[in-house]
Amino acid sequence: MKPIMKHCLLAFLLLMLFAGSVSAQHRIGQLCRIKGQEATMIRGFGIVAGLNGTGDNPREFGPLARGMIQQLQNSGFPMVGLKPSSPQDRGGPDPMRELGTSKNLAFVEVMVTIPAMGARSGDMLDVTVASVNKASSLEFGVLMISTLMDPVPQNPGQAKTLGRAWGKITLDNDKAKNVGTIKAGADGGCRLTSDYIHPFVKENCITLVLDEKYAGSAWAAAIAQLINTDNVSDGYEIAKATSPQNVVVKLPNAYLGDPVKFIGLLEGLEIQPDAYGLEILPRIVIHERSGVIGGMENVNIAPVFLSHQNISIEVQNPPAAPPQRWIPMDVDGAMADPPVVAPKLRALCDTLNAVKVPPKDMIAVIKNLHNLGAIQAQVVYK
Length: 382
Prior knowledge:
Distance between the termini: 31 Å
Radius of gyration: 29 Å
Number of domains: 3
Order of helices and strands: EEHEEHHEEEEEEEEHEEHEEEEEHHE
Oligomer: single chain
Number of strands: 20
Largest sheet: 8 strands, antiparallel
């Protein structure tokens, strides 16, 4: 394949047969989540050992660790195996000084995300570790056993231990070596020591939270109307749209003792957007770091011209079809308009791939097309 010319004109025409639009149905569970079922972070602090001269400065490590450990212990966050030196201990050895005699240690924050659906005692989860001082790299480091606590304890003196984390750290990004992860497995991770169940029923009501791409008064009202007219409501108006993104649903008496079953019924309800005058735009997801682009097949592009660096792109509608003897007629006997076949983003991506356009340039092209309003879709960047 020859190198891309300085001004490579990419004009493509869609040659696929037109497919009539079909109004798809969507389940409420695909459009909403249940309030209370959100991912939650638990955190703590710990020591990373085994660093190859890239840890905290020994002169700063001891005082920093002592101060933070004392503050954490006063708030009910214990540090396993580590104690700050007290005034009575000043005549003896300082454990922090003994730990921090070389740059092979680093004081870190330890973070673990509890999934939106909760987790049970004994589950293993991935861990994120970040330096809180001046360690230049956590590469080759091993996190000593660290205690993770409830993120917002009602009583700081009674913070509940939710898990313990340990293990070998791996770096996800060579440009950010002071942040690493520990994948859950035999070599480490976070083992939960308590159940973490997300509460989702409040005053016998649950709240449906619309996904951002569907949030709006029309969508919220349509979902409330669907619930109130379905059999799950027993003929009562149990749902009310309280905002463009929230629908509050009162539990029917028959489900007060089994809210999970009722939620399952709600999430299975199907809504037909056309019946409520609603529209769902196709979605494109772009992972900028990895250069991966994913999207639905029905993403259209309006006619547009774009020049990016050494790439020129012209998107055109297909030329008019030649005259034909058979003329389509509509039900009233008038001539029917021929179907309009819009160019697809997939065809553009295939064309750019064919001439070996780098992923970063392809992403830049899609961004510019979206900014111009030429892409009829919702673009999400990861």
